[in-house]
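Students often ask why we bother predicting the structure of a whole assembly rather than each chain alone. The short answer is interfaces. A chain on its own may look different once its partners are present, and contacts between molecules only exist in the joint model. In this exercise we take four input lines together and write out one structure for the complete complex. Read the inputs first and try to guess which parts will touch.
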Amino acid sequence: MNRTQATIRDVAARARVSTATVSRVVNEDTRVAAATRDRVLAAVEALGYKMNQVARSLKKGATRTVGLVAPELASDFFMLLAESLDRELSIHGYSILVCSSWETVEEEKKRIKLLSERLVDGIVMIPATDQGRHLRSLQASGTPLVFIDRIAKGVAADAVLVDNEGGAREATLALVADGHRRIGFLGGSLEVSVARERYEGFTRAMRESGLEVEDAFTRFGSLHVESGFRIMAEMLARPDPPGAYFIVNADTHVGATNYLMTEGRERRDGIVFASFDEMPYSPLLQLCRWSVSQPIAEMGRQAARILLARMRGEGGSPELLRLGTTLLRH
Amino acid sequence: MNRTQATIRDVAARARVSTATVSRVVNEDTRVAAATRDRVLAAVEALGYKMNQVARSLKKGATRTVGLVAPELASDFFMLLAESLDRELSIHGYSILVCSSWETVEEEKKRIKLLSERLVDGIVMIPATDQGRHLRSLQASGTPLVFIDRIAKGVAADAVLVDNEGGAREATLALVADGHRRIGFLGGSLEVSVARERYEGFTRAMRESGLEVEDAFTRFGSLHVESGFRIMAEMLARPDPPGAYFIVNADTHVGATNYLMTEGRERRDGIVFASFDEMPYSPLLQLCRWSVSQPIAEMGRQAARILLARMRGEGGSPELLRLGTTLLRH
DNA sequence: CTGTTAGCGCCTTCAG
DNA sequence: CTGAAGGCGCTAACAG
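Now the answer. The structure tokens for the assembled complex follow.
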């Protein structure tokens, strides 16, 4: 085994052709005589030649790489998305460079800069916040950007979202139809567009049903398990808490249910949830009556489709896709 | 905004220095006069210069990128690992290129080739199977490789594993101590080292306790939710199923519990689980009495540590790390 | 302290 | 159908 990797030159020398011909062969250019091609391929085989994609990228100004930026990597939503994106993009020869923004704009900015220096051909991102001004320079440089799940302001990019307001409204109306009149809201900060839209769907459904949205029955936290645990505990510490709740996402839902599991059975009797997200472990969420299922894999497919089109150079004004959700009864 | 990205040359021209000086400044080389540095930095600012990392990588023969290959991206274990790795590696300026092997060696081989062509500086992988012969050429090329969670045969690489046998044994012994004598095993294929080792821990504990491992009480599937659901159903379809089970991982556990949730309460009364993995939703796994918690974040940290050392060029024989697990009572 | 120069490995006209 | 040659943007000797 040779210490150093064979280059296109070594192959050329061995096959007694020029590097241009080797390049043509390995790139499947048709304008090469069959005999020459065979000689080149034999040399490739013999030397264990492997193309240096970095050199190729430098020459072509494109890397066949897309960046994926998310506020955190350890979330069910993110991983399903990443899997869907990988499936779609790898078919077309793209690799995925993942990075976490740790839920802050500053870190997001750094990641974007990094990706941009690495000449990624496109970026898919779940923005950490509503703020999108730091993405301007990216756009100016011509790198396609597709938002997914959430959207940031101040920058015109394609986006694949779900109908958060509609889904939340539907779920809340289902609780109302079940006869609940005192309904609480357990959710994430309104600064995150997803949480805000779901809150709006909730309040709209309440208003349409002639019900009051009581501040005392509303709790905002982050979108994490611990937050769900805490705000559920806070809620139940109140004198007369509601029996039904709309919950903003899966993690909050898990946290809230976890809290109730630490309490006695009598404490959770008569408590009912309607919640965003349907996960493999959803059947275990005993208090869940309604869940709003998001088409996560489809979001990944659509984002990949749009990004691929942009990377192919297809122009046009930004596409804003809002996919529907499905209400499930448990 | 200029149509084309400024290069080191544009900066050099504007600052009236050579490209070498610009290179020194942007690479924080100290041997540059303060006045010159300032002029260069001003030009960098004015032109919005951004280093082309692809060109840099070509020149240096290193990309500050590590590949992460896993059988699937959509698993809680994988995503926690990815997060931990990203945290550790990004500190040192490395980015992560993720790809899925879709649980097959052929696909794994393709991904490895891709990563290797992209000149990643190192690879962390959860092998899809025991087979590791296709990783030989990678090793020969000098790219450091660290296995995590599982290990493949036929190739000498560093590995970060957990004590699967010990953890499974401990959990099984706990069930025995609770008075159970008829204990079933719900698990993954023995061709996956993780499942095989846990099965061995289970049988060892049974043997040590003077108990029989009955084939009729043993079910192998994949390591997924659906598999857990199915094998639990199969087990309970038997005339006289056991009341206690050791379950090989979180997904199988969720699947098995999901199945029991579809059945009446009387059906699951008296059924108890001991299982590998502790997840945020674990409190919802009502039938779980004992769980074996894996230090996933620590595995990521250790893998990153080893990989960074290898990428720094530190030699030595492969390091095989086996981290301990923690038995938790529920 | 700064500049000149020679590539890293590949692609791509342009000739032949 | 094939070869020669000039970079892509950056770094690293080597001079000065």
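Check your guess against this: The mean pLDDT of chain B is 94.
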